[in-house]
Amino acid sequence: MIHFEDVSKVYENDGKELRAVDHVDLRIEKGEIFGVIGFSGAGKSTLIRLVNLIEAPSDGKVLVDGRNLAALPKPELRKVRRKIGMIFQHFNLLESKTVYQNVAFPLSLAKVPKKEIEARVTEILEFVGLEDKAKQYPDQLSGGQKQRVGIARALTTSPEILLCDEATSALDPQTTKSILDLLKRVRDQYNITILMITHEMQVIKEVCDKVAVMENGKVIEQGTIFDVFSNPEHPTTKNFVRTVMQDDIPASILKQVEGRAGGRHVYRVTFLRETAGEPILSKTAKNFDVDVNVLYGQITELQGVPFGNLIVELQGEDAEILRAIHFIQSSVAVKEVVADAG
Ligand SMILES: Nc1ncnc2c1ncn2[C@@H]1O[C@H](COP(=O)(O)OP(=O)(O)OP(=O)(O)O)[C@@H](O)[C@H]1O
């Protein structure tokens, strides 16, 4: 649906070249919710603006539904752009217009007959849960309600793509969740492809199917949420994942283990996908002469699939512990067992 093929965007700043987007390749398929994460200055905003040609690429091609926007004649470009909606961090609503007028605005501009506008706006306001706010003005709304108006306005022209530029960054966590739920419904009900940029990993974890991590204009890692979160490779990705999935051993627990006599055997056991529900540790305790002590861990859900990360201590004779570890490692249920200490 949206393909970046070796795309770069170079700005001139005081005679110096700045590569805001640097040789990026991305494929965002129809109906996907695709997240791009990166720190400030990574190039996310530039990247998203290349999709509707607010910015033109310096090199490479951005294809939307197979068409290179930069090569289209103006009337064609206008048509394609109408199929791309956008929502913003600060909502960008017209303060002097009511909710109804804001949502109707793109249709009024396109000179759609009044009756049609009414039917469409009513349907969309109902969809975003604002049917009772039609006559209110933006300054009478909460942040979450304002973003619902922004989403409604983007949807009135029946877009195929929705671009979200830090759409929840100005909202509290609870409101963020409700807006993300709404975006999921937008995709599910209208099969709209959603490209969102954010600096919050929680947002990516909550709603995206795939993620690309940007740094200095480059995509440094990309993949499904499950793969990237369960096995991040680049240090920056690891840092982002750490913001939502704590997997370090807390200092207090390490101290407690270190204080014990007779050495320590602490391992990280990572459960993936279908193995997350396996009673592998209780089997280990039953089949081997070892005690299994779960020190710390969490089971979370990534795209509806359980993912677990446990820190366990095995107590017993060294040889027996080795056999137990071998059993855990060889089991299809466990991806890796890493000695953290000992
Ligand atoms: N119009 C422009 N002219 C010159 N330089 C620009 C322009 N737009 C962006 N840049 C530069 O390109 C780099 C990437 O900026 P961009 O806004 O795309 O990053 P970002 O990841 O979206 O950051 P933020 O989250 O802070 O918006 C930055 O160094 C920025 O200063």
Automatic annotation (TrEMBL):
The ABC transporter domain, residue ranges: 2-241
Pfam families according to UniProt: ABC_tran, NIL
Keywords tagged on the record: Amino-acid transport, ATP-binding, Cell membrane, Membrane, Nucleotide-binding, Translocase, Transport
Domain of life: Bacteria
InterPro entries named among the record's database cross-references: AAA+_ATPase, ABC_transporter-like_ATP-bd, ABC_transporter-like_CS, ACT-like_dom_sf, MetN_ABC, MetN_ABC_transporter-like, NIL_domain, P-loop_NTPase
Gene Ontology terms, MF aspect: ATP binding
PANTHER family: AMINO ACID IMPORT ATP-BINDING PROTEIN, METHIONINE IMPORT ATP-BINDING PROTEIN METN
Protein name stated in the entry: Methionine ABC transporter ATP-binding protein
Species, as recorded: Thalassobacillus hwangdonensis
Origin organism lineage: Bacteria, Bacillati, Bacillota, Bacilli, Bacillales
